[in-house]
Amino acid sequence: MNTIEQEQLARLTELNRSFRDLKFQIADIELSLERLKNQKKATLVNLEVSVHDLAKYQEELTAKYGDITINLQTGEYH
Questions:
Q1: pTM for this one?
Q2: 34-44 confidence digits (pLDDT tens)
Q3: Max alpha carbon distance in the chain (Å)?
């Protein structure tokens, strides 16, 4: 049976391992990107809800106090 030299086998094995590791890294990156996309979608939905809630509450405050400016640190308004 013919075989390649030990150094050649070691180099081939090293290159193959490097290639495989890089493929796994790409797969991990793609999975992370997909999770981030899903997280972004969920955050955008939550942002829309937040914008709606904020606008509704501002309307309630305007109905009670009129068109005012409120200091968010002290609660004072004018």
A1: 0.69
A2: 999 999 999 99
A3: 94
